Amino acid sequence: MKTPPSQSQQRGMVLAVSLILLLLLTILAITASTSSSLQERMAGNAQENNVAFQAAESALANLSSQVEGGGVPAGDDVLALTYPTRTVRARMQSASRYAEGSSLDAEENSGTPLILIYDFTSSATLDASATTAAAITDDNTNARHLQGYRDRIIQ
């Protein structure tokens, strides 16, 4: 018959088990910290992309409202949008061309219809140093949107 180990022989085992559990808890804490840090950076990037997207959309809406109001938009201009923490700039570019309309586009005896087609491009940047249209380039653009606009003219 074997005799159970004495108390003095078991004392080292408690220390070894405690150290292993402490090591496992430390690894778990480091992993959780790294994961939450990464998720915070990803959320920040998503917010930045959303700000740039909204700035580019606002620039397109601005160009469209200029045309709808009877004006002619500038070929290359900057729209500055102020947010609570910063100013975001969007480069607004427009080009126009005429296309011949069909008789279906005109009312009877009204003249020759022409279609004025606008091509709008907006490029938004989060770069604070880009304050002019020429400074907003492909290198610092965070969002770009294109839109077409058609306006009928009867001559």
TrEMBL record:
Organism domain of life: Bacteria
Annotated InterPro entries: PilX_N_dom
Domain Type 4 fimbrial biogenesis protein PilX N-terminal: from-to ranges: 11-61
Any Pfam family hit: PilX_N
Protein name in the entry: Type 4 fimbrial biogenesis protein PilX N-terminal domain-containing protein
